[in-house]
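To fix ideas, we now present one chain and its tokenised fold:
***
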Amino acid sequence: MKLWKTAWRFLPLSLLVFVLTGCLGETNLTALDPKGPQSQWLFDNMLLSLYIMALVTIVVFAIFFIILAKYRRAPGDDEIPKQVHGNTALEITWTVIPIILLTILAVPTITGQFMLADTEPDPEIGEDTVYITVTGHQFWWQFDYENEGFTAGQEVYIPVGEKVIFELHAQDVMHSFWVPALGGKLDTIPGITNHMWLEADEPGVFKGKCAELCGPSHALMDFKLIALERDEYDAWVAGMQAEVQEPTETLAQQGRDVFEASCIGCHAVGGMGSATGPALSDFANREVIAGYLEFTDENLEAWIRDPESLKQGNNMPAFPDMSDQDMEALIAYLRSLDVQNN
């Protein structure tokens, strides 16, 4: 009786676990809502494994309760049951069935591994295939479009419906590049080059994460993958390739001077970026600062003055003594870095 009372105490916790398992998570940040061929394959195999597991569980528990009810000891029955030493047919059955189930899982798994490892360009796309070099830093992402001649930071753009090839590197420690809605994760390791490909079935903003503990701000090492129709993607590429326009407002012009005196050593604007800080060519087009802060003037100033308080362990120097006038001008210049206006 005490055992049942103890078990009832865990019932609310068990119900909570079942409720939480039904949560899909944040939009475009879940593997349970696939938006590409890789993620669809992963999702289908998760379902296959779940169905097989459920079938085995139901059969085993059914047999267990049938035996428990049919062969339970009756009151006053002290007779020792008949002892059975081996049953060849039964032993073959419970050996063959797991082999069949494992084969059902193994066939799509093995064939899928070849599909995931195929980083050759799609013959239908040919020379128009997009190649992107990804470098993981503490705690931000660098995206080099070497064929196009420019660098993007924190946000990576790809064309919809096309196989995009990624070359993965790490600058400092091990990271892991992961866009849950589009595919699986793959480590970026210092000194080792890994390759993967992703494809988006539809336009959208897909959130990415670092999936390898890499330091105190690992949880804030987010990025966005933005999938555009091919014509929109080509327009974005043209904007990134275009010469950076001089700011037209006086305040932004003053901010450019502040930027060149304080920031240009780490942050590139236009062309290929450095490995010190994220490229800022399209900074004004972003929705967040430092990978997670809402893009507001207040947050931007707080980030520039004391980045360590907002993202522990990052390498950006603080500018606590920058005058309010210079700060206002610098923010105006950063807000002018809009590739859509190039």
Q: What stands out?
A: The chain has nine helices and twelve strands. The radius of gyration is 28 Å. The CA atoms of residues 106 and 234 lie 41 Å apart. Residues 26-68+85-241 form a domain with the Immunoglobulin-like fold (CATH 2.60.40.420).
